[in-house]
Amino acid sequence: MRAQSSPKATVPLAWLELPRLPLKSRQVRICVAAVGVNPVDWKMRAFEFLGIAQRVLGPSGPLVVGIDVAGTITEVGSAVTEFAVGDRVVGGTDFSKCERGSYAEEAIVTVDNCAKLPDEVPFDVAGALPVAGATAWMALYEHGRLRERESPRVLILGAAGGVGHLAVQLASRVGAFAVGVCSTRNVAFVESLGGKAVDYSRGDVSEAAKALGPFDVVLDCVGSDHYSRSFCRGLLAEDGVHVLVVPRGPDLPFLAFPGNTRTVLGRASRERLEGLLAAVVCGELKVHIAERIPLGEAERAHDLSRGGKVVGKLVLVN
Ligand SMILES: NC(=O)c1ccc[n+]([C@@H]2O[C@H](COP(=O)([O-])OP(=O)(O)OC[C@H]3O[C@@H](n4cnc5c(N)ncnc54)[C@H](OP(=O)(O)O)[C@@H]3O)[C@@H](O)[C@H]2O)c1
């Protein structure tokens, strides 16, 4: 499914028959079964930073949106030894490698961004993992070095969303005390994931957060327009890390001299996907699927995601 060119800021989605691209030696072709919806999918349709980057770095021709993909391999490139036709897999497309997006009947993915699915993991659960799961994984385990800390404390801003609800669980499974900031309606949800909820609808969260800190990692999945950098950094323990997943324009000069603030670009490497799948199999990570939506109704899914109130993940199914 491609975004049609239009002078409007956000271009509409339309089905289009595109010629099949040949595989490169380290790519696989996947018959798409499920695709997780990420805010980047609709952000890319606008002529803003991501949309422009896609058009400059991405494949020529129409923009095909979508990164997450789960499905069955139908063809492997000449140098692929890790996968075979018929394998159930999950992965992420990468426009910077000139790959088209995954809102399609079939998608092409580089093998390094792809992992085999254990039998017990269904396509819809797997399809929700690549961007959101890899982002939470990188933020907590790589930038935040959570697995190397003793009795760590983590604050997650935006704990009920796609990235946040996985982050609460990834923190809890390594013994961290996870505090999740959410609205009243999501307090029970965040607590069901193993987190201690802080309800921002009741007013300023700083008092409640301060009482539960200081934190080894403050993971901001909302943005510095809601939670300022100084607020987040003020809650850090010594040697703590503030990880920003939504850098805004005013954050960019600051990020050139990061100090204890890092930004993360979630990338679904095989190692991260295998780690996430192992956590799913042993019951430590549960993907909350808010709704399964037919791929043909992707525009409705984007409207829901743009609304900023999705709990867990939306998944498109073919
Ligand atoms: N850098 C990267 O690689 C990367 C990767 C993934 C995502 N992102 C970005 O990160 C952001 C989050 O992504 P996502 O997939 O998690 O989004 P999402 O699923 O759409 O997040 C929705 C959630 O945000 C919560 N929320 C909204 N306002 C809030 C506030 N003021 N305080 C606390 N929670 C609030 C809502 O919960 P309540 O109803 O409880 O408020 C809702 O459940 C997006 O901007 C996305 O583009 C970046």
Describe this structure in words.
By secondary structure, this protein is of the alpha/beta class. It has two domains: 2-129 and 268-317, Quinone Oxidoreductase, Chain A, domain 1, CATH 3.90.180; 132-263, 3-Layer(aba) Sandwich (Rossmann fold). It is built from eleven helices and 16 strands. It has helices at residues 39-43, 49-57, 123-127, 130-143, 162-173, 187-192, 206-212, 229-234, 252-255, 270-281, 298-306, and strands at 2-3, 13-14, 27-36, 63-64, 68-76, 88-92, 106-110, 114-116, 153-157, 177-182, 196-199, 215-220, 236-244, 261-263, 289-294, 313-317. Strands 3, 5, 6, 7, 8, 15 and 16 form a seven-stranded mixed sheet that branches. A six-stranded parallel sheet has the order 11-10-9-12-13-14, with helices on both faces. Strands 2-1-4 form a three-stranded antiparallel sheet, with no helix packed on it. Helix 5 links the parallel strand 9 and strand 10 (177-182). The longest helix is centred in the middle third of the chain and has 14 residues, at 130-143. The protein is globular, with a radius of gyration of 19 Å. The N and C termini lie close together (12 Å). Mean pLDDT is 93; it is low at 4-8. The site of NADP nicotinamide-adenine-dinucleotide phosphate has 31 residues, from helix 1, helix 4, helix 5 and strand 10.
